[in-house]
Amino acid sequence: MKNQKKISFPSNLHGHTTYCDGKNRAEEYILAAIEKNFVSVGLSGHSYVYFDKEPNMSLEGTLKYIEELKILKEKYKDKIQVYIGIEADFYSGFNPKLDKNLGLDYRIGSVHYVKDKVKDKYYCVDNTPEILAYAIENYDNDDEKSLICAYYDNIIEMIHTQKPDILGHLDLVRKFNGDGKYFDENSEWYNKKVDEVLGEISKTDIIVEINTGGISRGWTKTPYPSAFILKKILSKNIPITLSSDAHSVENIDYYFKESVELVKEIGFKSLKIMKNGKFEDFEI
Ligand SMILES: [Zn+2]
Ligand SMILES: [Zn+2]
């Protein structure tokens, strides 16, 4: 590992290909990762959900995506460790048995939607500010607290029933929030809800992802989750990893250097990295 001294974090497990809403093919990500001298690289296509076809993989596409990655994993095995992942939305209902049957190496569990309480309708929290505003207005009498808490309740249910390896972008609901446009991150109810989620995470061995995707797409100034949440994560001894949620190869290590500095400042000593088929500590 002599020549890896300059790399802040030599891996990215969160990337999207043309099978979903990404701009590049899996092989292009692998070549970029080799170029960067990464130890490992994984792709994580958006899982199929029946109610939102556009950003997600189709069912046939999912199988093709996995088959393609199996071939690429073998093709590049002497150059880099390639891992087959998926970003499974809560409403795709994944579980460890399905991961195994599909041949996945890991699964990122993410919540992107909240289902209406009555109707067969799903509100997306990270598509556009207008859609988020619509969701808040329609979910429960224009009460932002209800929608945001329902988002976090989905996370709690997902970690216990679906058992992902990594929890994706924990506070994604912050994407369009700017300086508190839709809800107050300093409010007591929000902090209480975050504490509840972290309490549940700490009962599992799930790794929380530091995700720079909101910054690369120009929506947030800091990675998910917010620094105050990262402090709570540290105090609870919850493991973390770093990923860029890349939708194009240029962003494969977007804001990695700054993010490593940020978590170091908060007090973290290591990040989890996938190596030799399992998660290990990478000292920072
Ligand atoms: Zn996501
Ligand atoms: Zn993603």
UniProtKB/TrEMBL annotation:
It catalyses: L-histidinol phosphate + H2O = L-histidinol + phosphate. Keywords: Amino-acid biosynthesis, Histidine biosynthesis, Hydrolase. NCBIfam families: hisJ_fam (TIGR01856). Belongs to the PHP hydrolase family. HisK subfamily. The keyword Hydrolase applies. GO terms for cellular component: cytoplasm. It comes from Leptotrichia rugosa. InterPro entries: Histidinol_P_phosphatase_HisJ (IPR010140), PHP_dom (IPR004013), Pol/histidinol_Pase-like (IPR016195). Residues 13-212 form the PHP domain. It is an enzyme of class 3 (hydrolase). Its EC number is 3.1.3.15. Pfam families: PHP (PF02811). Pathway: Amino-acid biosynthesis; L-histidine biosynthesis; L-histidine from 5-phospho-alpha-D-ribose 1-diphosphate: step 8/9. This is Histidinol-phosphatase. It comes from the Bacteria. GO terms for biological process: L-histidine biosynthetic process. GO terms for molecular function: histidinol-phosphatase activity.
